Amino acid sequence: MKRTPERVAWTILFAALFACCALTVGVPSVGLAFYNTSTVDAAVDVKLQSGILNAFSQYETEKDATVVSLEGRPLSEGSTVFLGPESVGLMTLGERNMVTPLLTLQLYSNANVKINRARLPRFRSSALGDDFAIRLNSGRIQVLAQPEEGHRFKVRIATDNAITQIDTPGTYSIEQIDGETRINVADGQAVISAVNGTDFLNLFAGQRTLVSPAAGIAGVLPPARNLIRNGEFQAPLEERDWKIDTRVNAGSTVSGTATIIGDAPDTALLLSRTGENLGWGRTGVTQLINEDVRDRRSLQLRLNFQILEQQIEVCGSAGSECPFMVRIDYRDKNSGDASWTQGFYARGTPTEDGLPDYIRANNQGKHVARRLGVPETFETQNLIELLPEMQTVKSITLYAEGHAVRTQVNSVELLLQD
After folding, report:
1. Residue 53's domain is classified under what CATH number?
2. Is the dihedral of CA 266, 97, 68, 62 positive or negative?
3. 358 pLDDT tier (thresholds 50, 70, 90)
């Protein structure tokens, strides 16, 4: 075919037009796709709060694991952390130089957790959301999801039996133990799917379920019964079950105060004793319970609090003066009186021999380090398993002990499952 200058010109013209259209549409599309899909690594940090915590990276094995201190260490995707018995740790995930983490994992005794994915959108105004994927190999974790307002996020917690997907702010507890996965939604909403099968279940605030290899998802189980009355401090203290108790040593004239602060529904209990050269003092409240827990399946203490001020470091030289302490008095199977105590502190480092990381006269519960001025959550393990001799729960006491202290207790629950 004979080529003419006109044909060549038209070919070049149409080619230029097509190229122009492709660039006009393609370049913005590619740029928009990059804007909406580009991600960066989230900042991940883990720190010890009590006991023993170890961690190793994706390029290492458990033999290479190093001990994590109270100061903590940064982690990356693929890293694994594991805790010893009677140990507590805290993992935070979010932006670099974060003030408030987007995701907080409270790690409890014998937990083994792997970070499979921790990604944030490179551009915070893009359509892409935060994406976290955690593998819980064993033990128990409590998940606090607090994303930026109006921003999408997705959290997936995988165990041997289930995948828990979270895209709603809230507080969630997940446990992998005895071949079962137990999930509890304190606040928020989660979708539970079975690993072996197509079953799924929506869980809402106050609901729980169990997933086993043989039976799959057990459905929505009856909620635990809270033994605490006025545990969110909506009513006056001594009018609704709480009795105030303040004590000081003989040389001090400054007593502490236990008051309800805030307006409903955001009320809290403030335990306060401030000043200089105060000497020893205790400020607290006690509630009588008298509940028989024999033949019951589970008893768990759940707290939300923040330590605002602490003068004595750690919990004093004898480990008995923490800025926040909880004591449960009970009657054992021999009709004797006994107690279980857990303390929390926000300043100082325990000594090398472990003291005062536990109460010398009652070493059932080690004291736990918390962040100063930051709202914290804490759940005990099953107290019926921890204290097999317990027969009747007599009372619970919340108190601040030491010299100058201020602690805010937002809520307390003592949850009993039949």
Report:
1. 2.60.120.1440
2. positive
3. very low
